[in-house]
Amino acid sequence: MEQHILQELRTIVPEERMFVDLAERYSYSYDASFGEYLPEAVVQPLNAGEVCRIVKLAGKHRIPLYPRGAATSLSGGPLPVEGGIVLDMTRFAHKLIIDRENLLAIVSPGVITADIHKKAEEVGLFYPPDPSSSHVSTIGGNISENSSGPKGLKYGTTKEYVIGLEVVTPLGDLIRTGGKTVKNVTGYDLTRLIVGSEGTLGIVTEMILRLIPKPKARMTLLATFDRLQDSGHAITKILSSGILPAAMELMDNACIRAVEQFEPCGLPVDKEALILVEVDGHPAAIEEEIRQCEAICYEQGASQVRVAKDEREREELWRARKMVSPAITQMGPTKISEDATVPRSKIPDMMERLNQIRSKYQLNLVVFGHAGDGNLHPNIITDKRNKEEMKRAEEAVGEIFAAAVELGGTLSGEHGIGTLKAPYMEMELGEAGLSMMKKIKEAWDPYNIMNPGKIFPRPGQIKVVLT
Amino acid sequence: MDKTGPQQKLFDSAHDEANRCVQCGYCLPACPTYISMGKESASPRGRINLVKLAAEGKIDIADDLAQPIDLCLGCRACEVACPVGVPYGHILESAKEAIADRQAQRQPSAAGRAAAPAGQQSAAARTPSSRKERWPDRLKRLAMTQLFPYPGRLRAAGNMLWLYQKSGLGRLLRRTKLLSGLSEPMAAFEQVLPAVEPPHKRYAWGSVFPAKGEKKARVAFFAGCMMDAMMSRTNRLTIELLTLVGCEVVVPGRQTCCGALHAHQGLKAQAQELAKANIAAFEQSGADLYINNAGGCGAMLHEYGDLLAADEAWAERARHFSEKSKDVTEILHQYGPLPFTRERHGVITYQDSCHLRNVQGVRTPPRELLKSIPGATFVEMEGCDQCCASGGIYNLLHFRESMNILDAKMNKANVTKADTIVTTNPGCLLQMRLGVERKAENREMEALHIVDVLAEACGLK
Predict the structure, then answer these.
(1) Strands B325-327 and B347-350
(2) In terms of CA atoms, which chain A residue is nearest residue B83?
(3) Low-confidence stretches of chain B (pLDDT beneath 70)
(4) Containing domain of residue A133, as a range?
(5) How many distinct structural domains can be found in chain A?
(6) From the CB of residue B452, how many other CB atoms can be counted at a distance below 10 Å?
(7) Contact A24 B41 (CB under 8 A)
(8) Scanning every residue of chain B, which has its alpha carbon at the shortest distance from the alpha carbon of A91?
(9) What is the ipTM metric for this complex?
């Protein structure tokens, strides 16, 4: 980047919030996915005014801009793939207002998601989206990627809770979308367009989130199954019996064994699957619901069902699920974490397809996920220094996506497309569908400066390259 | 870039470990310097990545890696937060070693001395130091090589401090602001040094103190170099408390500095020499357990096994030594209850010593002991598990950065309305005393070592 542009940038943000040294720039070259891309400068804006001026400067000189939250992305969302300027939004975090009368939260993009949970719960309210990184990730990042976590089944995903935004457009204008009302049909729903657009259509500088009353109580059970098929049937039976659990988590045999090996907690390593079911609501109602869930699990062939009697036992049951991530990373230094999602009824079929992919490519593939909403997390554990195995992993990833799309599902339930899934977009959307999305991008961002190199495949790119 | 020397050594010692980081960022909210400085290079994830890049030769060890590593407090809260068990402490020490080596290559005169083992300096070491060396670095080097490894010299320094405090020279210096003119951090810490006990009250090396009542164990007391010199009263009370719960206490004569400061500054060879001296001294004591009262030293003793793992002649002995090393609160809690004789009124809060909590995993015993004091109200402080930014001598080397973190902590301490902030490490204690001086809203608030609080409640003086 030319010196005079850096000089102009210095007139917008002070020295202590602008980095050009090599070590500082390298510190913004990664996220939790793959690849290392060195930006030319990093800035830490503190308000919308600064963001507008940075965007206008970038537009004038056609410099790529990469907004970044806590960089916990698993799809490459914040990676500065074409250099340019990284906008580290983590310090833009001054506002977190809970509006109790209107059941709203008004927040700055750098606020950590768990802080919203905490503030809302202090006054008996509840913000349901809860990605597993919510104690680290920023709300700006969550909204850009539309990532939601385990409660999507009952409470919906992040996009259902965003009702208003303040956005800096790729031309550097400040606009507001939606507002403070739950109902709003004035014009196109730009709020929904921005949520999940992965920073390709603008930079969110403030958001209005809907809150709901906090459920009074919750109960949890853990059921183990000799056959994976049976666990799938238990899940669909519970959902068709009129119960809507707050969470339904599934772990396959490879996953159970990994956890038990990592930290023995009495899981049955000979079982094909286990499920965790959590219901929340009025104490009397959920007491009845959890008994019903228990009965259904036994009817569908569960070998054992444990219902937590108190909060301590509940935490014990969840412990198995929470150990999954650390346990599987013990199996190898590189984790390719996918989030292909299928209609709920297709979970057993998807599990079968994943089994076939595992044996075909001889990979360490473990599966867990949010079974209630069809969002599975197949994880390939490998070592990126093993080029030959990485090649097999690339092939396997392509087949996982193909399987999900064939079963009527989608490439990504919550991690986003970023760089890693861009090559498969046409597989799901078709040529015309992808072209409509491109037209939106071109209309919003004529200079192609807003997170360029993401979502859309490069010409001729049909598969991911990890090595 | 050359593939020899410090870079290759860094690659061999730390690249695999750094590569285990999955860059999930779960360490970010646990890191005090990331929170206060707000940039990725001041986070564990950022630092691990920079070590990896330096090992690969993509950035320079001295120009690019040194500063971010230097700004790490070494509190190791990130290790507790890490879901995949990246050994950050090892990576940090490998990086410090590489940085020290690279700087020695560039400035053979000054840094070469620092790297030479204690007592074996070359002739070059005695020549006047290079003009380029900043005073904190010079002080650090002199303390590291000439002071900490010599308990006798440290005691003499402690006695001089006693004289300085008693004679009124301290008051005079403060009035004339002579010290603050020389160095702001030195002046700040001079003000909060605890009162030193007169020389005649010091315990003698090699003494044995019989257990009161039934003897439950024979323990050897690790006095610690700074604790012994400056806080010998706390050490004396530690011994008395141990005897009250049935320990026969021996103070091994040939013990020396634990080596933590050396290891943290990249002087691994020196740290290893000190470790061997301590192992030999304590083995002779015939004790069942080795007790210390300083979280920072305790962590080093706890890791002698790792420090000497590659040394065939010492590995096994070092491992045994580490297994026997315990913090005083663990033993008082295990062999207690303490025979309290007086009530303590007011609110007590506890600031964890990072190295006690994060490295030795001791969290409950200090809290349980404080709660057991008759009449006391224990209130947990938000962020008690986050470093106070004392960090060995971090607060002297990086005064401004350290004070930013300390002031934020004091805001949380004020919320507890505590009269007493308790710590379990001399560095943390000095830092919290400075914090009280700077920011306490409750003018009665004081910072004390846990042993002093427990001893007072047991009627010991």
Answers:
(1) unpaired
(2) A326
(3) 1-4, 108-136, 178-182
(4) 96-213
(5) 4
(6) 20
(7) yes
(8) B38
(9) 0.93
